[in-house]
From TrEMBL:
UniProt cross-references to Pfam families, sorted A to Z: ELO
Molecular-function GO terms, alphabetical: fatty acid elongase activity
Keyword Hydrolase: no
Family under the similarity heading: Belongs to the ELO family.
Catalytic activity, as annotated: a very-long-chain acyl-CoA + malonyl-CoA + H(+) = a very-long-chain 3-oxoacyl-CoA + CO2 + CoA
Record-level GO BP terms: fatty acid elongation, monounsaturated fatty acid; fatty acid elongation, polyunsaturated fatty acid; fatty acid elongation, saturated fatty acid; sphingolipid biosynthetic process; very long-chain fatty acid biosynthetic process
Enzyme class: transferase
Protein's organism: Rhamnusium bicolor
Record keywords, A-Z: Fatty acid biosynthesis, Fatty acid metabolism, Lipid biosynthesis, Lipid metabolism, Membrane, Transferase, Transmembrane, Transmembrane helix
GO cellular component, one term: endoplasmic reticulum membrane
UniProt protein name: Elongation of very long chain fatty acids protein
Length: 149
């Protein structure tokens, strides 16, 4: 019994030691501009994981329970405005990306610019906007999956 408890303790210790090592490594290799600029979801790897976990919980558990005895909401106008905003934001990201590729990119081999130059910060903020758009895209699934069933 003592051997079993020792192996369980060693196993749990190893798992948590590995997880903490991975967590520290993620912070070591992360872009330092995340903290400097105070960006919403990119300052810690935990924030996107919490968003995705909350999303999955809402889609598969809480949302269906909330809507079990209710009629679907009429969200036609809201969804049209939401989709229009998504199209415009994604169009903006596409235009900025094509402009960056066409005018500012060396096609041979170019390293990522980790400096704090205005151009590097501009591109970094566009990456952040793209990431936020993808997180906001989750709302589309929530409205289509739970509220309109």
């Amino acid at each position: 019994m003592a051997l079993l408890l020792k192996k369980l303790y060693t196993g749990y210790y190893w798992i948590f030691d590995e997880l903490s090592g991975i967590y520290i490594y993620i912070f070591l290799v992360s872009d330092p501009r995340n903290e400097e600029l105070g960006l919403i979801l990119m300052s810690s790897p935990i924030k996107p994981v919490l968003v995705i976990t909350s999303y999955m919980y809402f889609i598969y558990n809480l949302g269906p329970k909330l809507m079990a005895n209710r009629k679907p909401f009429n969200l036609k106008v809201v969804l049209i405005l939401y989709n229009l905003a998504q199209v415009l934001l994604n169009l903006h990201i596409a235009i900025v990306s094509f402009e960056e590729l066409w005018y500012h990119t060396n096609w041979d081999c170019e390293l990522i610019d980790y400096s704090s130059s205005p151009r590097a910060i501009y591109i970094f903020r566009k990456y952040h906007l793209f990431f936020l758009i993808k997180m906001i895209d989750l709302l589309d699934t929530v409205s289509n999956y739970t509220l309109l069933d």
